[in-house]
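Take a look at my tokenised protein here and describe the backbone shape.
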Amino acid sequence: FMLAGWAAAIAYLISKSGRSAADFGLGRPRWISDTILAVAIFGGAWIVGLKSYDLFAWLPGSKLNLWDYLPPAPSTPIDIAFTVLGCMSVGLVEELVWRGYLLTRVERLTGSTLEAWVLTSVMFGFAHLYQGLNGVAVCIGYGFLFGGAFVWLRRIWPIA
């Protein structure tokens, strides 16, 4: 319900902005190219995750590695279905909020794509402070990766 609330709030703000949904990265999905780009972005995210958890392990309150953050694997078909649905929902809503809406709005306010990319990437990292400083550092890396992909593509589908 929280994700639905965030999505509804952003949809409302987009509708009141006077701009099209495509201006916020919500153009019609391009299934083949979006899937290829999504696989490439996922590969980049996998590398960022694997390398940076070890890189920032020295930070206070950090866990030793990425695998310490993962919950137990789902074991029943219903658990698997809800896990997949949950991951897809979180990915879509986070990209809608952080890249589709916030990055484009900060970019418009500051007049600088670079400034918006850096600011929203750092903010995204600190939104994950509950993961400790290691999680913040890693999520800043994810913010730069996903934000850079959004700035380049201007679409949230492959990123989400």
